[in-house]
Amino acid sequence: MRWLRTERGLDFGTYAQLWSWSTADPDAFWQAIADFFDVPFHDRADRALAEERMPGAVWFPGATLNYAECALRRTGDGTAVVALSESGRAELTWDELREQVGSVAAWMRAQGVNPGDRVVGYVPHIAPAVVCFLAAASLGAIWSMCSQEFSAQGAADRLAQLEPVLLVTADGYDYNGSTHRRDAEVAQLLDLLPSVTATLWVTNLGGPAGAGATAYDAVIAEPHPLEPTPVPFDHPLWVLYSSGTTGRPKGIVHGHGGIVLEHLKMLGLHMDIGAGSRFFWFTTTSWMMWNMQVSGLLLGATIVLYDGSPGWPSPDALWDLAAREELTFLGTSAAYLIATHKSGVRPSDGRDLSRLESLGSTGSPLPESTHAWIKEALPHAWVGPASGGTDIASGFAGVVPTEPSRAGEMQARQLGVAMEAWDPEGRPVVDEVGELVVTRPLPSMPLYFWDDPDNARYLDAYFSTYPGVWRHGDWVTVSARGSVTVHGRSDATMNRLGVRMGSAEIYEVVDQVAAVRDCLVVGVELADGGYWMPLFVVPSETGGGTSELAAELKQLIRAEVSPRHVPDEVIFTSALPHTMTGKRMEVPVKRLLQGVPLDQAVNPSAVDDPGALDQFVALARAGRG
C-alpha cells in the first residue's frame, strides 16, 4: 500500500479499499504486482489484461519469462532447501540448487526434451523432485507429478494422458516408521507409459538405479550452467489434476506467467513470506500445496520439505519439526490441527516456537474450537485459514496480515479475486449462504484442460451454471465486513425439508468429540421421494461405537447446531474413504448410497482406502434409508 501511494499515486486507507481497486481494475493491479516484485521479463507487455473474458482472457501479450529463472534469482551460500525425512536431513544452498538444476536440465536436453514436451515424476516429497521440476520448467517442458503412495495404475490414470517423453522416479520412501520400496510399481508404471524414452532414477532408500535408468546422482555430479529458455507468458508450466474420484482425473494446465504472478501475490503479500522466511507446508507431491511451497523460492525464502508421517514417532511430530527447524510459517491441514487438538498435545509445551509467526490451514474449514485452542497455545502466532483450489493453484479467500483473525472465518477475499456469493438466480448476497463465484478473470485460471480440444469439459466444470462467470462449487458466506465462511461443497449440500445445510457445521461439532476418530455425513435423495441423512462415524480406540455415543452425538448436534442438522441415524464403521489429499468423499458416497454402480460412482485408484467403499455398496443393496 505504501508502494502504491509512492509509485502510482493511489492512496488506500484500508484493505477493503485495496481489494475493491484490485478487482475493479485488474489490468492496473496485476501490472503493479509484476512491477512491485520486479518480475524478470525478457520481453515486456504493453498492458497486463489485454482481453477480458472467461475463459480465454489474454494476459501480458508478447511478454516472455521463465518460472525457473524467477525462482532461482537468488545466489550464494544461504539455505534454499531443507529436505527432511523420517530417516535423515539434507540441505541445498542457493548455488547448489542452481547448479543441480543446470545439470539435470542439460541431461534432459541431451535426451531430446524440447519446449512443450512432457516430463513426469513419480517421486516422494524430496529435494530431487524440486530440482527436476525446475529443470524441466527451465527448458519450457511441461511438468506433472504423482506421489508414490499412488499405485502404478493410479499414477498412469493421470500421467499417461500426457504422453510423456521422460520419467523421473525413485526407489521408494519411508512412512510411519516403515520402508516402502516401489521398484515393482515403477516397472509397472513404465509399462503403462509407452511414450517414455528415458528414465531418471533417484536413489532414496539405497541401491542401484533400475534397469535402463540413469542415476540422478551421476547426473548432478556433472556441472552445467543453467540456461533458462524464455517462453510466452501463457506457455504451459505444469499439469495438476482433479481428484479423479468420479472418473478419469482432469488435467488442469497452468502457465508460467500466471503462476509466477499469483504465487508472488499469495505468498509475498497474503502469507507475508520473503527472504529470511523458513516456509513449511505438510503436503505430498500430488497436492497443489507442493507447488505452492516450491514457489517460496520466488520470494527468496528457505523451503522446508518433509517426506514422512505427521504422526510419527508421536502425534506432535510436526510441532517438534517446527521447533527444531525454527520455522516461521507452518502450513498443514485443518484435519491435522483438529487431531492434534483432540489428542491433548500443547504445541508450545517443552518447545521453543518463538520464531513461528504464522500458522496456515487449508483442505477443509477450521472449527472455531480448534482456532481458539491454537490461539491459547500459541498466542503470538497468526492463524490463517484459507480456501482455494487446484483449479487456480492458489486461494480465493484466506489470510491477510493486516486484518483481524476471527474464529470460524477466513479473513477476507484475496487481492485480485472478484469473488462473490450468489443465490440461485445469480444475484450477489451478503451475510447469506450462496455459491462461490468469480466474476473477473485471474491470471492463474487454467489455460485449458488436457485433451479437451473444444473446451467442453472446461466450460462444463466452471461456466455451465452462470455463463461467463466462474462457479467454483463451494458454498460460502461473505460477510458485510468482508470475511468469508466456507460451508462445504455445494454439490454435497444437504437439502432437508427445503432447508439447505452444510456438512461443515456438523463436522465442527463431531470432530471435537474424543471418542470419534473420523466422520462423514451425507444427504441422500431416494428414489421414492424420501430423504436420508446418515452420519458415519469411525470410533477412536478409546471410544467404542455404542448406542450411548450415537445418542451423545445427536444431542450435541441438536444443541450446538440445530434440530434440523441431527442425522437420521449414526452408523459406526471401521474406516471411511478419502481422496489422496485427505478430503472427505461426500459426493461419491452419496452416489453409491443412491445405487450408482461402484465403477461409475468412483475411481478406486483415487481413494486412500478403496476397501472402505464396499460398505456403502452393501448399504445400497440392502435398501437402507
From TrEMBL:
Domain of life the protein comes from: Bacteria
Ranges of residues in domain Acetyl-coenzyme A synthetase N-terminal: 15-70
The keyword Ligase belongs to this UniProt entry's keyword annotation: yes
Enzyme Commission designation: 6.2.1.16
Coiled-coil residues: none
Region (Disordered): 345-364
PROSITE patterns: AMP_BINDING
GO molecular function, one term: acetoacetate-CoA ligase activity
Domain AMP-binding enzyme C-terminal: 508-583
InterPro entries to which the protein is assigned, alphabetical: Acac_CoA_synth, ACAS_N, AMP-bd_C, AMP-bd_C_sf, AMP-binding_CS, AMP-dep_synth/lig_dom, ANL_N_sf
Name of the molecule in the record: Acetoacetyl-coenzyme A synthetase
Organism: Nostocoides australiense Ben110
Annotated gene: aacs
